[in-house]
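General statements about sequence and structure are easier to judge against a single worked case. Part of our work consisted of pairing the sequence of a single chain with a tokenised description of its backbone. The amino acid sequence and the backbone structure tokens for this protein are reproduced below.

***
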Amino acid sequence: MYFVPELSVMAGFTLAAFILSITPGPDMTFFMSKTLTQGRKAGLVAIIGATNGIMIHAFLAAVGISALLAASEFAFQILKTVGALYLVYLAFQILRNGTALSLEEGEASRETPRAIWAKAVTINLLNPKVVLFFVTFLPQFVSASDPYATSKLLFLGFFFILLNVPSSLVMVFGASAVSKFLRSSPRVMRILDYSFAGIMAAFAVKLLSARSTA
């Protein structure tokens, strides 16, 4: 299948996507908070909204990056270099400040499923963690000369969704236990911080080395 990257590429992408999916962020905070305050149905609606937001990111990234490839390979390399530098900066910030998971419990203002969905879509569209992933991670998984770049980028975007949904469902169905565990286990949170920062730093090095040998 021409749209499926090589096995080594898939392995690296899967590792990065998995670490990202279990790292707390605005989307995770939202759907777990909705589960704790309005029940599992609200949490599932939030996951659907977040997933729809990721679909939009995947499509825009595939089209945008592919257009950049067609327009200028030099501009594409600049994007990868800037992305690598930003990855290093973000890794440093995570190690310095850590991630955060602030969840509401008990009674809160109830929202309709449509309102929850719309808010989840918006949160994920503006989620810097997801934007970072699709703008700076995806370019390194496709060759500047690959004629099937758009198809491969779309495949990777939807493969990311496939990896992300199961962990989100686990968190919704076990929201109470998961939230208590994370908040009572700072060591686990720091392990997640170091894992995510390490992955980003490794990919930054890979991006910069690919730039220098292009």
